[in-house]
Amino acid sequence: MGKKEKTGLGRALVKQHNQMIQETKEKGQFYKNQHKKVLESVTEVSDIEAIIEQADEADRLFSLDHPAPSLPISLDAGSAANETTSVEETRQQQKIEEALHASSLRVPRRPKWDLGMSVEELDSNERRAFLLWRRSLAVLEQNEKLVLTPFEKNLDIWRQLWRVLERSDLLVMVVDARNPLFYRCPDLEAYAREIDEHKQTLLLINKADLLPYSIRKKWAEYFHRQQILFVFWSAKAATASLEGKELSTQWKTQNNLQEPDDPDTKLYGRDELLSRLQSEAEQIAKMRSSGSNSVGSTSGGNVVVGFVGYPNVGKSSTINALVGQKRTGVTSTPGKTKHFQTLIISDELTLCDCPGLVFPSFTSSRFEMIASGVLPIDRMTEHREAVQVVANRVPRHALEDVYKINLPKPKPYEPQSRPPLAIELLRTYCASRGYVGSSGLPDETKAARQILKDYIDGKLPHYQMPPGMAEEEGDSPINNSLDMHESDSSDIENTPVGEGGSAPDLEHVLDDLNSFDMANGITSKVKVKKPSASHKHHKKPQRNKDRSWRVGNDDNDGMPVVRVFQKSVNTGSVKIG
Predict the structure, then answer these.
(1) Which pTM value belongs to this model?
(2) Under 8 Å between Cβ of 331 and 341
(3) Which one, 17, 38, 180, 557, has the greatest CB density within 10 A?
């Protein structure tokens, strides 16, 4: 009886297990049919999945009545390369092209919709509008005078932004205080006003504790002139105060430099920021209620504040600090937040966190986006270019003081004010830390990742000045050294030989590189191959023989002359045995 009961129980367990497997397969097939994919940020231009998805969307949405616009192809590809233009002319042309196409660089808009639309019709309209937006940016990418940075290409990520914009009364754009204009998207502010004319955007300047008081004051004056609503804030400092932890010495020193009476430059605390956000959102709600209702209006006394911005600028950290506990995932890798999250602070205030998006722009390069933490560091393939951005922004003495290293000085024929090269910084860092790869060469990839992480986390001090103030500030340790380095290098290339100096010799440059490698212990000494000699000379050193008796021909008759030495006669006593 007991045996039959055990057998029945085992069969029931196996049957239940098989049913669970079948349900899992059916559920997976259902999600596959519904195209329910996990949200993943797609920013790379060469991503084959994004290209295939774009082709599928074009084939599904557009029929023969709506053919794809044919783009002209220039077969003369070498004409632009043959033109010899200087660096200054190239920059001027690039600025002119950026100004002409600034209106085309927009955030994708959500098409108009109403409650009577079906899900299929709404999805089709959104995909069609998104594909047209992608094609407009593809036309800009074909312009050789423009450099379009990587941007978000996943429609589902942009849908999260659309929902946050429509729900929010106040839009908070989180930016990094060390370079606020890089993380600011003016077209997103314009899109918010298109949705609701009363909707405003607040610039939340995170990591402001890494800026001295004088620099914060300059940025406050700039934002006031531009009529931008802003608040200085530090999510890390607010979290530390909630947990009862003490700040580091550097942060304490910089916080003591501020004036507490100045409301524009002070760092807002958690309670102060919550009251400021609630008051701004309630003011917008009152203005909307007095006028006509529009999309995104909230009913009752509850107001919604939406947080948007680039990846890895501190949106989730700010949400956790305001809520008072960890409610969203935080990591140094961009793209941790996948879906927008709604968090209720009180009966009157609700926060909405949006996933980080990479907006299209002209103002930066891909390596600058990696150094700024927008693109993942672990996915970079060219580490020297990204480290060069760090070397251009951080002063030489700051790198040496933080890492306790001695960077090689510029050579006499080089500009003495040039920033260190990426190869110099990486090799010196590898030599000081002992980073060696399997091949015996310096592990520059590991060193580059560590340097970039220190740059993002604030271990390496750096900041940007407001436009028009970088040249006026003489006490600023950080300047736009990239332009200075490029101009200096162009001066070296254009300097003729013989006018006030001589051009650098190639042998001297190679000797300098070899001496740098041997001084840092990176490479072994080069073995010089000696001229061939006999076998016995390899066993012991050759003895210097006296060959002074060999003389040349004194009479110039072609016959050698030999000097003969006569041995002295022994005049001593002779012993006879």
Answers:
(1) 0.66
(2) no
(3) 180
